[in-house]
Amino acid sequence: MSVKPLRVVVVMIEPPLPFGSAAARWYYVLLRGLVERGHRVTAFAACSDASDVEKAAAMFPAPQYDLRCYPIENRKGVAAKLETIRRPHSHLFREGVRRELAAVLRKGYDVLHLETAWSGWTALDADPAKVLVNLHYLYAIDDANSSFVDIRTGLQRALRKRAERNLLHRFGTIAAITPRLESAARKITGGKVPVYWFPFAIDSTLYRFVPPQERPTRPVVSLIGSMNWRPSHSAAVRLLTRLWPGIKAQVPDAKLRIVGWRARSMLREYVDLSGVEIIEDVPDIEPYFNDSSVLVYAADDASGIKVKIVEAMAFGVPVVTNTEGIEGLPVRDGVHLAVSDDDRGLIERTVALLRNVPEQERMRLAARELIETQCSPARALDAVESCYRDIIGRRGGEHGIVTLASPPSDSITHSSFAP
């Protein structure tokens, strides 16, 4: 696609590492892709792990890339607590980041691209017409059915949702990685802000498809994900307490393995269960995907893409999930994975796959092909560039005539907002 280079400033809540956090996988595709397409990009990234600063610098070396990573500030004291109450998650970006971003913006730019609503705290003084916010999740969805815990937690949730809503009203353009988020964003803003859908993408060339001869000979049911993220934790508890007993009863030689950040501490009451292995904080997740017969991931009330499901499909691990698990993915039940919303159906689909290796092989081949075509970087970047074109076009093209090519006819990006 031939385009006129744009000046784009991107703000991310994690460094763009291909095997970092879930969001970081997309950031890696976004930054690399925009630069490869000729755009002049400066990227700011908050960094929760200091070691990731060096990793990101090595992967995105200057002067080819202008990537600026900043360790997250550990705020303490009453003032910090009050700021967190007033501006939830604003601690991700220290004051120095905001000043440096403002200095870059003063030199001129076409689009300020914010990843997640919380990046918006860095751009409160930016021209709203130049700002794009890309949503990966919404607390308006994730907390909608949360049960009452205590007054403090309830207050935190209410303040978080209010801040999320206020930030979405502040900026000129919104994008979302699933149609569900797109619809919710349009509802929150009352149709007053253009809302786009960006297809989620990973670089599938980084994922080695496991050949049949290297797959486990013993049936292994896996769940892989960060247990300090509520959706993954809820999926793990459901699997351990409601699904695994039924699976084990029908496939006695099966083993259950749960892998993820803080898995043993967050699931401490289950670590001694027979036939269950719980492993936490592993440096590399690939060996655990390679040794999985089936990934079972059925979370509750979780908006956004479930990246571990996408990765399982890329590695060639058959997936059993629920409707929440396929949000934003153009999959077909029984073709690319198995879907059921009730416990009985999830157990039956898992058992059927464990007993049918040829069906596993057919499904995982179809899933890998879908990831390569429908979750490709090219498809997602076409959508991003199309959105940039519209943002500049709505401003009257004050930076000159925009020559961004039109997206292909099968592109799934679109501008959709109520009049």
Task: List the defining traits of the structure above.
Rossmann fold; 2 domains; 6-stranded parallel sheet; 419 residues; 14 helices; disordered C terminus; alpha/beta; 15% strand; globular; 7-stranded parallel sheet
Please describe what this structure looks like:
This protein has 419 residues and is of the alpha/beta class. It folds into 2 domains: 7-201 and 376-394, Rossmann fold (3-Layer(aba) Sandwich), CATH 3.40.50; 205-374, Rossmann fold, CATH 3.40.50.2000. It has 14 helices and 13 strands. The protein has a 7-stranded parallel beta sheet with strand order 3-2-1-4-5-6-7, sandwiched between helices. Strands 10-9-8-11-12-13 form a 6-stranded parallel beta sheet, sandwiched between helices. Helix 1 packs across helix 14 (377-394). The radius of gyration is 22 Å and the shape is globular. The two termini are 31 Å apart.
Span from first to last CA? 31 Å
CATH architecture of the largest domain: 3-Layer(aba) Sandwich
Unreliable segments of 5+ consecutive residues: 398-419
Order of helices and strands: EHEHEHHEEHHEHEEHEHEHEHEEHHH
In the CATH hierarchy, what is the class of the largest domain?
Alpha Beta
* Structural Rg: 22 Å
> Which structural category fits the helices and strands?
alpha/beta
Q: What do the pLDDT scores average to?
A: 88
Query: CATH superfamily name of the largest domain?
Result: Glycogen Phosphorylase B
How many discrete domains?
A: 2
Number of E-state strands: 13
Largest sheet, spatial ordering of strands:
3-2-1-4-5-6-7
Q: Identify the overall geometry.
A: globular
Instruction: Bin the helical content.
Output: 25-40%
Q: What name does CATH use for the topology of the largest domain?
A: Rossmann fold
Query: How many H/I helices?
Result: 14
Largest sheet: 7 strands, parallel
**In what range is the share of β-strand residues?**
5-15%
